[in-house]
Amino acid sequence: MSSAQVLPTDSLDHFEYAVGEAVRLLRAGKVVALPTETVYGLAANALDARAVESIFLVKGRPRRNPLIVHVADLAMARQCVADWPAVAAKAAHAFWPGPLTLVLPRAEVIPEIVTAGGPTIGVRWPSHPLMLAVIRACGFPLAAPSANLSNRVSPTNAAHVREQLGEHVPLIIDGGQSQVGIESTVLDLTTSPPRVLRPGMIHEPALVAALGPVAVSSGTRSGILRSPGLLRKHYAPRARLVLWSWTDEVELRRRVAQAAEQQAVHVIAHTHIPSGRGFARVSVIPHDAVAFARAIYAELHACDQAGAELIIVEALPPGGEWQAIADRLYRAAASAA
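The structure assignment produced for this chain is given below.
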């Protein structure tokens, strides 16, 4: 396959043309890379098992890792599930469109490949205008995991997608930088109380305020997965990534000297910021969870592109607002075993 066509959306004419091209390919059973407010997604017709299979092939994604289905309204969401309880209506009213995925019993119309053979499906109504326009024009829901190679850092702009998948997809729509920056919160509504399977930027206190008590899963799941993002190794750059704390630059440099043979050491800091002397790159993300989430994947991509051998990320502060970012970084730092 030749390199992907990248279409802009920076004017009304460009936007409408990009939507038309995406719809044409999706109706033909192809995969297309589309922007969402969380990360860029690799989309296919969620009702077409053969089209969905292409997602797994392009990404090199394990078949046991389920996909999230994206919809453009409540009616489409209800067509994807076998049951729509009152708690689903409450969650949708409070958080949709937005970065919340609801796990519910799968409707028969959804092929088993989407749910990795499981009885439940994750459904999300995204807020990005381009994604919504494409779904509405298609008239069917889109299965859309992140548009990257399996287990690698998720893309938050079109250039990230082109770098990893540009030779394997026909079309990438450039909808600008993703504004949330990490994947959606996933909430399982088939349990009582509802359970957070994957943390995101919709945090537990907000869920509790809208829905009442919720439980939070921890660790890595085995068996049939009800959500993506639960594998031990995920969201990883090519370089080795570590999460370290340090009180000053002297301590950081001592740890680096003890650590390794790596010559290209990149540091991502938020509070204790070292000078650039002796490091290949030092970048700073504000000590703010929303800003950090929006920026972290782009920083990891930049480190990889610059040839980093070791990426040192300053350990995150405590607090629920940092939980989702910590989850992504812990999985990125995990060994493949």
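Interim note for the steering committee: The chain has a mean pLDDT of 94. The first strand starts at residue 5 and ends at 8.
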